[in-house]
Specification:
Largest sheet: 4 strands, antiparallel
Structural class: alpha+beta
Low-confidence stretches: 1-27
Strand order of the largest sheet: 2-5-1-6
Shape: globular
Order of helices and strands: HEHEEEEHE
Number of strands: 6
Distance between the termini: 44 Å
Radius of gyration: 19 Å
Strand content: 25-35%
Mean pLDDT: 77
Length: about 130
């Protein structure tokens, strides 16, 4: 295998990775909400996302971190309800408000947070209905 120095152009990287999508399609914008909450509330959060019309999400467990409740160690105690989880989704902008409206009363009574950021996706059809 030969090696080269310097940077590769997007075209050469696309050829090397056999990427079927042109780079120009990567400019489709979605919004990424991600929620951090206690594992015992996973069913509530995923049900809310499903009812809002979110087509898919990723759940990451065993989080560690420090917040207003102090430091939380990310390891399984006795079950998955005892850990913090993060749920990440990519959604069209019109779903953000219903998601936030659903989480607001929940977070008035439970610890956790929702972050929202703009993202670009290469296959927008996967995220819009």
């Amino acid at each position: 295998m030969s090696s080269t120095t310097g940077t590769r152009s997007p075209d050469s990287m696309r050829e090397r990775c056999a990427c079927p999508m042109p780079v120009s399609l990567a400019s489709s914008v979605c919004v990424r909400p991600f929620a951090i909450l206690e594992g015992e509330h996973q069913a509530f959060a995923t049900d809310l996302l499903d009812r809002a019309g979110v087509r898919g999400y990723t759940i990451i467990g065993n989080l560690s971190g420090k917040g207003s409740q102090g430091f939380h160690e990310g390891h399984l105690m006795f079950n998955e309800d005892e850990v913090l989880i993060m749920i990440i989704a990519a959604v069209p902008e019109e779903l953000v408000e219903p998601i936030l409206e659903g989480f607001t009363p929940f977070f008035n009574q439970h610890s956790g947070v929702v972050f929202i950021s703009d993202i670009q996706v290469s296959r927008l059809v996967k995220f819009k209905g």
